[in-house]
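Quick one: structure tokens for this chain, please?
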Amino acid sequence: MGNLVVDTNPLSYIYNAVPELGEKYASLLGELGRKNKLLIPKLVYAELSLIFKDTEELNNFIHDTGIAVGDLALDTYVTAAKRWSVYNRRRTLMCQHCGAKLRRFTCRACGAEIR
């Protein structure tokens, strides 16, 4: 059994029941959780606290999913940052509540595309 670090977005999609994505992530994490220990760093916990109604609801969600909260080795954060950078260059932005894909953002002042 290994450790698997879970990021904020999949948990947000599950909590907000985003069509298709919420169910897919819940199923995937359920499967992965049977073979691995699911972990979130304290930073992800903090980000999730902005999404949930209150910390009691967040703690219940974390408990129900079997996810552990804790610190990670510093090199794990560096690896995560590098992977996020690659992901960020390829990703499609979408609404965390409804799952609608957002084509692009433009600055209201000058019209430049925001990447």
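Helices lie at 8-15, 21-35, 42-49, 55-65, 74-90.
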